[in-house]
Design brief:
It contains 18 helices and ten strands. By secondary structure, the chain is α+β, with helices and mostly antiparallel strands. A four-stranded antiparallel beta sheet has the order 8-3-10-9.
Length: 550
Amino acid sequence: MIENIRRYTGLIFIVIVLLLLGFVFMDTSGFFRRSGTGGTVVTIEGRAYSASEFRKLGASPYDLIPRLGDYRLYGFLNALHGDAENEENRAIQFFTGRILLRDAREEFGIHPSDEAVDAYVREIRGFQTPPPAGSPPGTPGDFNAEAYRNFSSKTLGSYGMVERDFRELIRDVIALDELRALIGGGLEGSRRLAEAVAVERAQQIEASVASIEMEPFREQLDPSDEELKEWWETRKGAYTTEQKVKVSYVLASPEYPEEIQEEPEPADAPEKTEEQQAAEDDAKVERAEKRKEIDKQIAIDTDNFITRVNDTEGKAFEEEAEKLGWEVKSTDWVTRATLPADLRLRTRSSAAGTQLAETIFGLSPGPDPLAPFTDALPVGEAQFLVVRLDELEASREKTFEEAKDEVREQYIAENAGEALEKEVEEKTAALKEAIAGGKSFDDAAKELGLEPRKLGPWGMSDSLDNEFNARQIFQLASTVNPGDFAEPFISDDRAVIIHVDARQIIKDDNRGQQIDQISAGLRGQIQQRAFDAWLRQRIQEAQVTTPQRS
């Protein structure tokens, strides 16, 4: 293991430099593309991985993890898919990261035990009973063996997984924590920085402030068309039309017979006996199993549909949809903001429909005959969406007349902002001079036509009735000595001049423990960044490729 660590000495040195200078993230946009059916999905370090391997280690756990609601599993997911920019890229980069993690497990001798996996599973909230009533926040419940059995025997199957696959996923999660600590083992968070953060969190501040509104400066500006056009000439590349598309799509949805649909039980339903409740529970399970069989058939039909579309280079899109009884819907010109409801559905591995928009507006008309088609996108509860790009109106630079209203608004905003900043500088200088001459902040502010206010005492997490931006002002004032001016707070509609009157550190007997916790958190962040750099390096070295669909 020591020899393996020595191999990465140079990399760890690079990590330290990156921590100081910032990271250069690999651009993965368009780097990966998921294969619709069988065959090679991705090649890593010269080895080709099939669709079934990708589903087992990549797509299935990628879709499952968000459903479990466990923050540690979320962390595992985010650590491996890195900075990939869209849903397809994230899924394949997650798979790639997991393959490279497994290689590193062997390389570094990291082999989490069955006992460690058991312990981890018992700590997942979804497999625990609710904590006793009145328990403090964060109190865990007891392990619910029945919930875990139901998950293993029913839920996992809907993701094409068995319990062994899930336990191997947990083994990889544990291994990632150990690998992260190993790679970043020589990197520590600054104790002095942790102390400074603890002190900042513990202090109370009192301040005198005066606001200057933006609107009067906006009202003074009435630029001519000539002024606007001159201003626009140096910035016109920033004013572009929205990309528009016309698309056709099929939305494959399961149709459940009425007798197996689940209706919510009325609130005033009579109480059932134990025998009645048991019978109803059994009936619910039976209905759920029948719905699951229909869901599976939809998945099979969709897979066959995509295979046929791929085999015919897209020519059989309408024909195959008609054979399956699926309606092909077509849109007029749409933008990201005007996509129809079907194209804004929640994807099953994402909480928002924005991922669909990224995929749809990332389609191109060619030259590959399948470039206009998406793969089968899992949406809703058990639906699949396949989209074909019919026409594309690319984004272009606007003419001055098209951009004129935007140009006017931004011209006024920029120039009013500059005038406001100049006013703040002048008023602050005058306040400093007056206070140095013996005047109070309040008297000096009033003489300058400002309305002074007192804030606090308040802490970092406190809100104030007389100041909406209390937290931002606290942040600016938190390292300023009493009697000095902080940097002004400036927003889109006003500026606030800040004079720190007093700062008091609140005594806390647990300060040492707080510093330890902050220091540990900083160490974890540094180690995660070191792991991120290591993973990006390994991905580059692995020469990851995906075949073009044909």
